[in-house]
Amino acid sequence: MTRRWRPSLGFVLGGALLATLGFAFFGLVALRYLGPVIGFRAAALLLAGVILVLTGALGWLLVRLLLRPITALEQFAAQVADGAAATVPRHFGTAELHRTARAVIAMADTLRDRAATIRSFTDHVTHEIKTPVSAIRAGAELLGDGTLAPQDRAILAQIDGARQQIETQLQALRDAAQAREVRYLGQTSLGVIAARLTVPGLDLQLSGSDVALPMAGEGLVVVLSHLLRNAAEQGAGKVAISAAALPAGQRLTVADDGPGISAGNAGQVFDPFFTTRRAAGGTGMGLSIVRNMLAAHRGTITLHPSPQGALFQIDFRA
């Protein structure tokens, strides 16, 4: 395939500046010689028309080499971000824009492939494990209908409990994979969703309720509900949520008065399947799901040291 020559950005901008100066110089020189011949008024009108045509041609060239490729790349990036079928730009203009566009397209392909791999792996694992788990359930139900000694019934209960835990973990795995893909586009504030953040036995205190947050209400409710349930399950009685607008974006702070998270567990709380409540049915996927959802909205969540309870900080980049 023949490689097309693409001018550099410096060449295009330098040429445009030189052409602009050349038009002005050409006009002055031509007016000097044409003025005495056809009259200065007629010469000025003629030269204005010629310069206008040349300037229009220069503008068309700049649109073709700069504006159109940038606009096409912007539309491509927006389509990828929205999950729609993205149209790859056909024109790249200068050499620098060509390299940038190729890098953006390659990055988009990599992200799509990674998301597809995660989804495929999740579907494969859940499908392969679903059949033996169903067999365990059927066997447990069949044995439960018969007459068993107390010790055998206790063993059967353990088997069925393990089966339920496997099913719970599989559902949590599917939810975590989905959280990487689902986006809640829009804006909301704590004041708008306050009525949907109620957790029994938990006193909720909000501040910065009018700060606009770059996430639709449904998504922010999911994120905060995970954090509130975790606080309630750890024995907290009060949770303070504050929102603030910063120069670099928006920040949410979620602090509770519970026992907090030990230093040994602090580095693992966002790891999938890590939980200290396995015996109580915890899956260890709640904070991982929260992190994935926030990542899809240019947000991050971090755990910070606190004199009492747990302190989570959510930052949305502008």
Short description:
With 318 residues, this protein is of the alpha+beta class. The protein has three domains: 9-93; 113-179; 190-317, Histidine kinase-like ATPase, C-terminal domain (Heat Shock Protein 90, 2-Layer Sandwich). It contains eight helices and five strands.
Q: How many strands, what sense, and barrel or not for the largest sheet?
A: 5 strands, mixed
- Please give the domain count: 3
| Average pLDDT score | 82
Contiguous helical run count: 8
Anisotropy-based shape: elongated
Q: Please state how the strands of the largest beta sheet are arranged side by side.
A: 1-2-3-5-4
Spell out the CATH superfamily of the largest domain: Histidine kinase-like ATPase, C-terminal domain
What portion of residues is helical?
55-70%
Uncertain residue ranges:
none
**Category from helices, strands and their pairing:** alpha+beta
- The N- to C-terminal Cα distance equals 42 Å
CATH classification class of the largest domain: Alpha Beta
Give the SSE order as H and E letters.
Answer: HHHHHEHEEHHEE
How many strands appear in the DSSP assignment? 5
Percentage of residues in strands: 5-15%
* Radius of gyration of CA atoms, rounded to a whole number: 32 Å
Q: What is the third-level CATH name, the topology of the largest domain?
A: Heat Shock Protein 90
Q: What's the CATH architecture name of the largest domain?
A: 2-Layer Sandwich
